[in-house]
Input
Amino acid sequence: MQRLIPVNSLDDVPAHYRDTPIERLLAWHNLEASFGPVMRAELLVGMCMDNRKVLRTPENFAFVIRSGGANLRHNEFKVSFAIGVGGVRAIAMVVHNHCGMAGLSQRRDQFIDGLVDAGWEREAAQQHFDAFAPLFEIGNEIDFALSEVTRLRNRYPRVLVAPLYYDVDDNRLYCIRET
Output
């Protein structure tokens, strides 16, 4: 099964995202569409801290939380703020290919060596990695996005939550098929 849905025209946007902030995000980013000025945030974007990704959106359109692997589990209060105070009713969960949080355990030596180079004691760097890597490892990016979307939908049942995929090779957003 093809897990990604390319969005090359508005007709490609899945029906349940039409006339929502998710459609507008896809149109602005992929299609360079314009919907006029935005007066207040309509969307919360949860995305990875990776420096290779930049979304094309107008000012005021979205709250953005950047966290390794787009992992929002440790940013719950910020999500609640965007919903409770900011009034957003849609969340775009944006994962990407070539994510450093996928397969994190394979980067253990690199992580530790980098901290040692930055002045850490080796044993402290090892303990740091071993204590925190399990909290931040996401496994497969698409599977993680789908599990996080399910978690967020259960937590915020009246908020539209969409799993999206950013391809760092072509700088485009894709919808993730959920079935």
Observations:
- The helical segments are 21-31, 76-84, 108-117, 122-136, 141-155.
